[in-house]
Specification:
With 510 residues, this protein is α/β, with parallel strands linked by helices. The protein folds into two domains: 2-169, 2-Layer Sandwich (Ribosomal Protein S5, domain 2), CATH 3.30.230; 188-506, Rossmann fold. It is 38% helix and 17% strand. Strand 12 (287-288) and strand 13 form a beta hairpin. Helix 20 (451-464) runs parallel beside helix 22 and helix 21 packs across helix 22. The longest helix has 18 residues, at 408-425. The termini are far apart. The mean pLDDT is 89.
Length: 510
């Protein structure tokens, strides 16, 4: 007799159902797990045997045990197979009736004393269980709130193996777990401890941040140390529109796979803000490694990726951002697997214009030294950044001013109005939600300009040597400026401001 227990594992940001087949026969004791298990799955033999014994249940220690994880041609990883393996053994030794087990997806890590511990990726696993018409899912209590995000499937959380045993034996039938997702989502969204009004002066930069937020444009700030670049960037999320429920679920799914969700906060209600150190590798930024893990660009999905000290990142790290910035997704191919991760993020970069620490020190460096300092940032990367803005040191009069600056909530209202205009405009366009996502077809349809605007763009293109991509970026930023003002047409004034945000195209950067 072979007992089948259903569990699930993740592949990329998706999940798939796995059959855990258990077979016990007479012979010298042997406990083998087959079906391309990784080391964590192989080690489950020791955890499962100890957990069953310490729970007061019978473990077949004088039998030959074979566990098969089907389909056998897909690599399995993680400790979430412990509980389904234990349940399969209890069924195969007639300690549990196998009747109702096939109705549930079972997942969880076991400690040696039989306690259940949380596992990553529960949200996509629960979604897959629902899609495959399972009645419910059995999991650790710490994963209950995350799983309850999915409606239409029963969630049964437990603390120990013995509780799961009593459930399947019919001795204890608890009510399915329920959780008010909407209340949690509303309570968590928009909780910021910082505000853009904390920044004195820098009105031109705040204007650029507002335009970037309104159209989801990439932005780079160039200024001397202490001018406020990092402070401004960290406050960008406070003026971004709140995540919609669909965006929140999409973002939560990514963080669930990475195992970054807190048991008390099962849904990501605020836009992610990721700020990796400049010593990060290309694999850490984009993702990869032997198991094709998520990178920072995917963890910033629907949020902001802030690269401080932009010029200090290794050149190869910056170059791997080219394709994700265009495609809004990244495909990681390895010998044994190929996975696709979403990465629709806003890139915000900050850097110094030279190795100097102050304006006076700039004279100590030659043009060659400054050029060498900037050479790590290639033209194609700058071409993919919509808005270039110089951040000048704040004057003393602005620092000492007692006048209150404009609060994030006020700017955010203008940004939301502009975003709503874009959502209505792109209703019939699949996968486009903001001006930065427009393709060639949408540019022709929604970014029409008059003859004066065409002449202005022609002059700018010829004098600045703009690329075709830079030309498109100007049209997109111009469209966003018009949306902020509530105007249907892109005027030469809008285009003129957008051209001003291509300052690095006007300099001999590389």
């Amino acid at each position: 007799m072979v007992t089948e227990v259903f569990t699930s594992a993740t592949y990329g940001v998706d999940a798939y159902i796995i059959r855990v087949e258990t077979h016990i026969e007479r012979g010298l004791y042997n406990f083998s797990v087959v079906g391309l298990p990784d080391n964590a799955v192989k080690e489950s033999r020791n955890r499962v045997s100890a957990a069953i014994k310490n729970s007061g249940l019978l473990f077949p220690s004088i039998k030959r045990i074979t566990i098969n994880l089907s389909p056998a041609d897909i690599k399995k990883g993680g400790a979430g197979f412990d509980l389904p393996i234990a349940i399969g053994l209890l069924c195969e030794t007639n300690q549990l009736p196998p009747g109702m087990i096939g109705n549930y997806v079972i997942i969880g890590e076991l400690s040696l004393d039989g306690k259940l511990r949380r596992v990553p990726g529960i949200l996509p696993i629960t979604m897959e269980a629902k899609a495959k018409n399972f009645k419910g899912i059995i999991l650790p209590r710490e994963n209950a709130k995350e799983a309850s995000i999915v409606n239409g499937i029963e969630i049964f959380p437990f603390d120990t193996l013995i509780e799961v045993f009593e459930f399947f034996s019919g001795r204890s039938i608890p009510n399915p777990f329920s959780f008010d997702l909407n209340t949690m989502f509303k309570n968590e969204e928009g909780n910021y401890l910082i505000d853009l009004s904390d920044v004195k002066g820098q009105f031109e930069v705040k204007r650029a941040l507002e335009i970037a937020a309104a159209g989801a444009h990439n932005l780079i700030m160039i200024g001397l140390p202490g001018s406020g670049k990092t402070m401004l960037a960290k406050r960008l999320p406070t003026i971004l529109p709140a995540l919609s429920l669909d965006e929140a679920l999409e973002t939560t799914r990514v963080h669930s796979i990475a195992g970054l969700l807190s048991p008390d906060t099962p849904i990501i209600a605020t836009r992610p803000f990721r700020s990796p150190h400049h010593t990060a590798s290309d694999v850490a930024i984009v993702g990869g490694g032997p198991n094709a893990k998520l990178g920072e660009i995917s963890l910033a999905h629907n949020g902001v990726l802030f690269l401080d000290e932009f010029s200090k990142f290794k050149r190869n790290v910056l170059e791997v951002l080219r394709q994700p910035l265009e495609d809004k997704c990244v495909t990681i191919a390895r010998a044994k697997m190929t996975v696709k991760y979403p990465c629709n993020f806003m890139l915000v970069a900050a850097m110094n214009p030279s190795p100097a620490g102050s304006k006076k020190e700039e004279e100590l460096y030659s043009d060659y030294e400054i050029q060498k300092f900037l050479s790590k940032i290639s033209g194609p990367i700058l071409d993919r950044i919509d808005i270039h803005i110089h951040v000048n040191p704040v004057k003393y009069s602005e620092l000492a001013s007692k006048t209150d600056s404009e609060k994030s909530s006020v700017i955010r209202e203008r940004v939301i109005r502009a975003r709503n205009i874009q959502l209505n405009r792109y209703q019939g366009c699949k996968g486009i939600f903001s001006n930065s996502n427009m393709g060639t077809k949408e540019l022709r349809e929604f970014c029409k300009i008059d003859s004066a605007g065409e002449n202005l763009l022609k002059t700018a293109t010829n004098k600045l040597g703009l690329s075709a991509r830079a030309y498109d970026k100007i049209l997109k930023v111009g469209r966003t400026i018009a949306d902020l003002l509530g105007e249907d047409n892109i005027s030469p004034a809008h285009l003129g401001e957008a051209i001003q945000y291509r300052s690095l195209d006007r300099s001999a950067w590389i």
